[in-house]
């Protein structure tokens, strides 16, 4: 099955209800685990009708094993997007 770019974009929008994009900082909620991560990539799984987020886990202080690839519906955008990540970092406005 061949999909056009427009059809793929519509599927991303449908399976990604929180409109999460690469580069966003998110709170991941899985069962009893909750942690902060940055989205480094998004993958569309047409067969399972899902979008998966590849993560860069931030603040992994307690060294627990945490998944670095999760369903995007398990992620919620952090509202403090203007937080400085590291010295010299400039907060960016969201479009």
What does the model show?
Strand 1 (25-30) and strand 2 (33-45) form a beta hairpin. This protein has one domain (5-77): Roll (SH3 type barrels). It is mainly beta and 95 residues long. 12% of the residues lie in helices and 35% in strands.
Element string (H = helix, E = strand):
HEEEEE
The CATH architecture can be given as Roll
In helices, the fraction of residues equals 10-25%
Low-confidence stretches: none
- Class derived from helix and strand content: mainly beta
End-to-end span in angstroms? 33 Å
Count of runs of 4 or more consecutive helical residues: 1
- Domain tally: 1
CATH topology: SH3 type barrels
Proportion of residues in β-strands: 25-35%
Cα-based radius of gyration, to the nearest Å: 15 Å
Highest CATH level, the class = Mainly Beta
Largest sheet geometry: 5 strands, antiparallel
Mean pLDDT: 82
Backbone shape: elongated
| DSSP, total strands | 5
Strand order of the largest sheet: 4-3-2-1-5
Provide a compact summary of the structure.
The protein has one helix and five strands, in the order H-E-E-E-E-E. By secondary structure, the chain is mainly beta.
């Amino acid at each position: 099955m061949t999909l056009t770019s427009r059809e793929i974009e519509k599927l991303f929008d449908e399976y990604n209800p929180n409109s999460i994009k690469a580069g966003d900082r998110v709170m991941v909620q899985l069962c009893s685990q909750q942690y902060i991560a940055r989205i480094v990539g998004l993958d569309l799984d047409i067969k399972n009708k899902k979008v998966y987020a590849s993560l860069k886990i931030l603040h992994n202080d307690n060294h627990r094993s945490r998944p670095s690839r999760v369903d995007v519906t398990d992620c919620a955008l952090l509202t403090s997007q203007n937080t400085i990540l590291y010295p010299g970092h400039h907060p960016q406005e969201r479009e």
